[in-house]
Design brief:
With 340 residues, this protein is of the alpha/beta class. The chain starts with a strand and ends with a strand. It has 2 domains: 116 residues, NAD(P)-binding Rossmann-like Domain (Rossmann fold, 3-Layer(aba) Sandwich), CATH 3.40.50.720; 176 residues, Dihydrodipicolinate Reductase, domain 2 (2-Layer Sandwich), CATH 3.30.360.10. Strand 2, helix 2 and strand 3 form a beta-alpha-beta unit. The protein is 35% helix and 27% strand. The protein has 10 helices and 15 strands.
Length: 340
C-alpha cells in the first residue's frame, strides 16, 4: 500500500499530542519530514517516539526539497499565514491549526492563495469532531427543540502554560496575536456559527483578571444573529472548575452538551412564571468512544487527495477569525461591532 507523504511544520504541543500521533496511528502515512527552528522541539518529537525521515530548521527548505500529500501547520499563530501559503504552493492538502491567522487581512491572503492554486485546506476546528455533535446535529435537523433563539458556550481551563504547551508563546501578544479569546474563543465562534448561522454583530469584553501576562485570560462575548437569535460566549484561562460545554435553546426545548460529564441531554416542556414546570429529560449521548483529536485526524487522513472540499475549511476559519478580531475591537472601543 502506498503511504501518504506527510510534512509537519512546527513540532510543539499540538503536533505531538494530535497531528503526529494521528498520522502514525492510521497506518496510511509516512512521517516524511518535520520542520521547526527550535532544535529542542525536534528532539522532543524524536524522544516521544515519532521518527521522521528528515528534519529541518526551515520549513521553506523542507517544502522545496519534498513533495507532500499532506502538510500540517502547527506553528505558533503568528506564522500560520506564511507557512500555510508555502504549503499551498507545494501542492499538498493542508491541515491548518486554528486560528488561521492573527488578522483578517492575513486570513484573507490565505483564502486568496488557496483559490489561486485550487488548494484543499482544512482548519483544525477539532470540537466539530466531538461525537456528541453527531447526535445534536441530527436532533436539530429533525426539529426536536424547534428553531434556535439562544446559545451559550463556556470553554475554560487553567491555561496552556505551564502544563501543556512546550513554551510560553501563548502569552506573547506578538506571537500569539491574542489570549484566551483567540485560543479558545475561536472554537466557540466556529461552533456557535455552525449551529446558529453567521454572527451579524457582537459586543465583547476581554480582561486579564488573574495571570501576570500581556494578553487576555478571560473574555465574554454577546453575539447577534440577525434579529431572531442571540448567543453568549465565555472563555478563560483561569478556571479551576465549573461548567464547560454548550447549551442550545429552541422554541420547544433545549439541548445541553456537558463536556466534563461527557453527557448530552435534551429537555423539553414548559416553565411558567409561577415556578411550576413540566419537563421531559432525554439523555441523547454519553461516554464518548474516541477523543475528538483522534476523530479529526481520521477524517483528515480519509480525505487526503479527494476532490470534494473538507467539512470545515478556510471559509469557516475566516468567519471565526472575523468574529475574534471584532471582539477585540469591541473590547477596546466599548462599542457594538457589526460583522459583514
Amino acid at each position: 500500500m502506498k503511504l501518504y507523504k506527510i510534512g509537519v511544520i512546527g513540532g510543539g504541543a499540538i503536533a505531538q499530542a494530535c497531528h503526529i500521533p494521528g498520522y502514525l496511528k492510521s497506518g496510511k502515512c509516512e512521517l516524511t519530514a518535520i520542520a521547526d527552528p527550535c532544535e529542542k522541539s525536534l528532539q522532543q518529537v524524536q524522544q516521544a517516539g515519532f521518527i521522521f525521515k528528515k528534519k529541518y530548521a526551515d520549513y521553506r527548505k523542507m517544502l522545496a526539497e519534498n513533495k507532500f500529500d499532506a502538510v500540517s501547520i502547527c506553528t505558533p499563530n503568528k506564522f500560520h499565514k506564511d507557512a500555510a501559503i508555502a504549503a499551498i504552493r507545494n501542492g499538498a492538502d493542508v491541515l491548518l491549526e486554528k486560528p488561521i491567522a492573527t488578522s483578517v487581512e492575513d486570513g484573507e491572503a490565505i483564502v486568496a492563495e488557496a483559490k489561486k492554486y485550487k488548494a484543499r485546506v482544512m482548519v483544525a476546528f477539532s470540537h466539530r469532531f466531538n461525537e456528541h455533535y453527531d447526535v445534536v446535529r441530527k436532533e436539530l435537523q429533525k426539529g426536536s427543540i424547534g428553531n434556535l433563539y439562544m446559545a451559550r458556550i463556556r470553554f475554560a481551563h487553567s491555561g496552556p502554560f505551564p502544563g501543556w504547551a512546550k513554551t510560553d508563546w501563548f502569552y506573547s501578544p506578538n506571537v500569539a496575536g491574542g489570549g484566551a479569546l483567540l485560543d479558545m474563543g475561536i472554537h466557540a465562534f466556529d461552533l456557535i456559527q455552525w449551529f446558529m448561522g453567521h454572527i451579524t454583530a457582537l459586543m465583547a469584553k476581554t480582561a486579564t483578571l488573574r495571570k501576570k501576562i500581556d494578553v487576555d485570560d478571560n473574555a465574554v462575548i454577546i453575539c447577534e444573529f440577525g434579529n431572531k437569535a442571540l448567543g453568549y460566549i465565555e472563555v478563560g484561562w483561569t478556571s479551576p472548575a465549573g461548567f464547560v460545554g454548550v447549551e442550545l435553546m429552541g422554541d420547544n426545548g433545549c439541548i445541553f452538551i456537558d463536556y466534563l460529564a461527557d453527557k448530552t441531554t435534551m429537555i423539553r416542556g414548559v416553565t411558567t412564571p409561577s415556578g411550576k414546570t413540566k419537563k421531559k429529560t432525554t439523555v441523547l449521548y454519553e461516554k464518548s468512544k474516541e477523543p475528538l483529536w483522534a476523530r479529526q485526524m481520521k477524517y483528515f487522513i480519509s480525505m487526503i487527495g479527494k476532490k470534494q472540499p473538507f467539512a470545515v475549511g478556510l471559509e469557516e476559519g475566516l468567519l471565526s477569525l472575523k468574529a475574534a478580531c471584532a471582539s477585540y475591537k469591541s473590547s477596546r472601543t466599548g462599542k457594538r461591532i457589526t460583522i459583514r
